[in-house]
Task: structure prediction
Amino acid sequence: MAEAADFQGTSPSPARRWLRRTGAVLAGTPLLAGLLQLPAGSPAEAAAQAAPKAASDEGSVSVSVDSLTPSAPSEGDTVTVSGTVTNKGKKAVTDASVGLRVGSLLDTRSSIDTVAKNSGDVDSPVGAEIDDKYTEKFSKLIPGVSQHYTISVPADELDLGKDGVYDLSVTLTGETSDQPWEQTFGVRHTFLPWQPDELDTKTKTTVMWPLISTVHMTAETGSDEEQTPVFHDDELAAEISPGGRLDRMVALGKDLDVTWVIDPDLLASVEAMTTRYEIPGENADDKNAVGGHQEVAKRWLTEVQRAVADKEVVALPFGDPDLASLAHHGTSVTGSLRHLKEATDVAAGTVESILHVKASTDYAWPVEGAVDPSIVKVSTSAGADKLIVRGDTFETGHDLTYTPTAPRPIGGGTTAVVADARLSTVFEGDMTRASSSTQAVQRFLAQSLTLAQQTDRPRSVVVAPQRTPSAAQAQTMAEAVGALQDSTWSQPQDLTAAAKSKPDPAAATEVPSASAYPKSLRKQELPRSAFEQIARTQDKLDRFKVILSDQSRVVTPFGRALNRGMAASWRGRPAEAAIYRSGVETYLDTLSGQVRLIEKSETKLSGRSATIPVTVQNNLVQGVEHLVLRLTSTNPTRLEIGGNAYEEQPVAVSGGHSQSVKFTTNANANGRATVVAQLYTQDGRPYGQPVTFDVKVTEITATVMLVIGGGVLLLVLAGFRMYTQRKRAAGRQAEKREQEDAADEADAGDAQNPDASGRRPTEESAPDTREDAPEQPSDPAPDTAPESADPSGTGERVDR
Result:
């Protein structure tokens, strides 16, 4: 942020530096001529008489400050500086000495920036060296060899004046064989904050501590009851494992008074790892490998729960959507803002269910805190009324000589919480080197102290670092924040309190125009095609879900995957982002294609009326319903379906089954008719691909009628023959019974009138009156009732 009249400490331009050096050489020429006329002295005497000056091979020795403790000393402390000196030149440096020099007081924030920018410039001014006893000497520095140094000085010996930030320099002086006089071969400037007494008005500082990662989960889930999640890589396991980036963020942040800013997608992804999860194989045909980091995931979540207990937690929208990309390219695509609203709605619930804390969803955090009117509009559309922006996108205000407090009302009930740009960006870059980390810590403290000394006004300052700090950056941040919270000029404050603090009426509140949005950030935004693909996938999902008996098995994983498709973490990775979004859409197409019509070949109808079956196949694990199958005749004058041009029937198919649906048809003429089968959802939208087949109608011919008639006649004749045969058999049985009755009557008469011999006629002598029976002894009388002479009933057996 700009500061009024802040020009002090600005380094000279290269042209001015060249002019200065040339002038010094010209001015020294007469003096050199005079010296040549004096008696020659020893090189040591010459060096003693002249002040140290820059070597001709300036910066030939690299000086690093790897540690400075304490970072902000107080009275009675001992300041210890350690690091290395490395001879990068071609000649050895002899009589080398490493010493400390306290420079001028840096009373503006821009002067600190200048010193940091030129921290290794041997031409930059340095102060007087502290007492010679606080130096470390090396007899010889060999080229390419590093030497470690450690210097400890009581704070009282530093001769520090008024409170503030001092330029502390570590210099390496010595001489070479071809230049045998004392010279400065290397320097490293750093910062020494000096505020031994408590400030009357401390700065309230809010530090945002982000727990955000890249996208790891896909839309795919297993077909089992638990819906085993599928990850596209196992990199998240490395981040949460001991020593990993996210593991360090939690371990370091738990001891600090910070506001946790969390992407709920990260928590959901780690929770999915606590049970069985899968990772695709290297080849497309490989089966998914089972992830084995369940215990690591459980441990990390437990540590997060402990770390955030009694701390403020801010939940970003699920997946951390890129608000600037959405504002610049997504709002013109129908439905894009719907995804932001859904991502915001599920955020608080996700955090609470996993961490068991209430999270605020009132904040929106655009990438690098850069905003314009469209970003503000999109950010607040999902319910956020506070935007985390960075100070380099807002002007400080007219005629302000200090950094104003963080909250700025920007209209419409929205507050821009302006994070300090210098404090927020100081941890960027490579922090794996101890020298870089130490310099960042000292610069952070220096900026904070200088800010605190600007005015007696009570102010709230917010630090919004990079979204995904590395493990080394997190370590540096923790050291700096820990030192700040122990300082005499600052006190911690949570984000909500900072946002509610009284705004500075003199601070600028105008949102920067669209043209002021950084071009470097605009180049990294998601393109319009990304949001078009997301909208297309959502439309397919809407069609698919209405037929499912259990929509949540599909809607939830795909909805969250669409949120991930617009994540801010895709910036700088356009190819990977496109692959992810295409994978989501392709997998949805695969699932919806599991419900389809079976292809049919040509069907022949040999009559005027018949049924046509059409089969619906469901290869999903769950049942489908709310589907309508429509069979349409393209030539209804030849072939009618259900008495019309088409007929519809509802369809419901269990998971893993097929269902045949029959349609009644009526043929009006011979020939071929094309029929189209199409599934529809109940709202009338086509589902899947249609199936088209031909139906051939053939007329019933005279020959066929003759054959059928002959068959019917044969059946009639056979029945008549059976009838006559049964009738004849019944007549013979009746005649036999009549003859037997007559014989019985004759026997009775003979018994009353015996013959001349005095004997009655016997049965043996009785004549057999049956025409077709041979003569034989008469059978005994039957002991059963007489058989019926009536024709046998239907289905009865007839003995012939």
